[in-house]
Amino acid sequence: MNFKTINDLNSIIYKNLHKIPKDVDLVVGIPRSGMLPATIISLFLNLPLCDLDSLLNNEIYKSGSTKIKKEWIKSVSQARKILIVEDSSCSGSSLEQFYERTKDYEFKDRFVLLTVYVTKNTRSLTDLWFEIVPIPRLFEWNFMHHSSIGRVCFDMDGVLCVDPSEEENDDGELYLKFIKNAPLKLVPTFKIGYIITSRLEKYRTETEKWLRDNNIKYDELIMMPYVTKEERLKSDSHGVFKGTHYKKLKSTYLFVESNARQAYEIAKISGKAVFCTENQIVYEENFLLNHKENIKSSFLSFIKRILPKWLKKYIKSFFIKIKLN
Asked: Which residues on neighbouring strands pair with residue 129, listed in sequence order?
């Protein structure tokens, strides 16, 4: 699974800004997803921005007075080049729709089409692209509205709803009240695969009701079997529990987790990708290998830095003792 975060999107744009022609006067996003990279680019380059519908009506968004440069165009007709931005292309249908909509537009000869993420089959449909991302793939900014979330596992608290406060997490009346009224966070458009939560099995009825009330459809709800909160905390097995179940579910290729430590454990146990909403990091094989290497490198660096100082201090102390004796 190739999962791209908003941080990934920002980074790939920043890395490739030099590829954008210097004479671009206007940045245009193809709604909706294309508006996100278009906005990032327009802010980085301090250029005027609009969406495709506004462009076709020859309208440009207004901006705060402190950001406007003297060179900014006042109308679309003044633009030397117009950068059209789409976030991704998979089948090529969105780009074909763009070409169809703009085939009679008077300034289409000034277009430069940028698609941030492409496949090998769609890179020829665009003037510029930043990265080839093979299928299967998901993007943080719209993955909750993609039909493939039927193969995704979700944590409950911190992902689908907010985490309980320390006061609410009492395994009693306050916790029951929280479960029944927890504010919704991520809202899936399609039926999701599995919910694997550290909530205790005894709260299944209340949890299922909350999911129904919020119109969240799912295949299976997997909960921890402990009787009390104290037993669960003593086991300290949240990540192990989730990772073990995730590994068994062969059809799944992504777990969405709210806690960084648990995300690391889940990925390590399952050998599959985990997206952590806490730090927007995707934990997968390459990340885990790099993480181990970074720990090893940091440890060796620490030894190289500390050992000479320790030896010098030890030798000095040794000779002082001999001298005193």
From this structure: 115
Nearest in space to 88 (alpha carbons), one of 64, 122, 55: 122
Strands (DSSP E) found in the chain: 2-4, 24-29, 49-51, 81-88, 111-118, 128-132, 137-139, 152-154, 192-200, 218-224, 254-257, 273-276, 281-283
Rounded-to-integer distance, Cα 144 and Cα 278, Å? 17
CA distances from 274 to 116, 141, 197, 292 (A): 23, 16, 14, 17
- Token pair, residue 133, equals 């991302």
- 259 with 279: CB under 8 angstroms? no
- The 10s digit of each residue's pLDDT in 228-264 is 888 988 888 999 999 999 999 999 999 999 999 999 9
Residues 265-298 pLDDT 10s: 999 999 999 999 999 999 987 544 444 444 344 4
Beta strands in 72-228 (DSSP E): 81-88, 111-118, 128-132, 137-139, 152-154, 192-200, 218-224
Residue where the block lists tokens 């997997």: 222
User: Position 246: which residue type?
Assistant: Y
Per-residue tokens: 281: 């990091």
Tokens 């720990």 sit at which residue?
A: 295
What is the dihedral sign for C-alpha 72, 75, 76, 80? Answer: negative
Take residue 224 and report the two structure tokens written for it.
Answer: 């921890």
Alpha carbon of residue 135 to chain centroid? 17
User: In the block, which residue shows the tokens 């698609």?
Assistant: 115
Closest CA to 37 of 98, 101, 3, 88: 88
> What DSSP string runs through 221-245?
EEEE--SSHHHHHHHT-HHHHHHHH
* CA-based end-to-end distance of the chain: 69
134 and 2 Cβ atoms separated by less than 8 Å: yes
- Contact (CB, 8 A) for 31 and 87: no
Report the distance separating Cα 88 and Cα 98, nearest Å: 13
**165 residue type, one letter:** S
pTM of the model: 0.81
3 burial (CB, 10 Å; 0-12 / 13-18 / 19+) is: buried
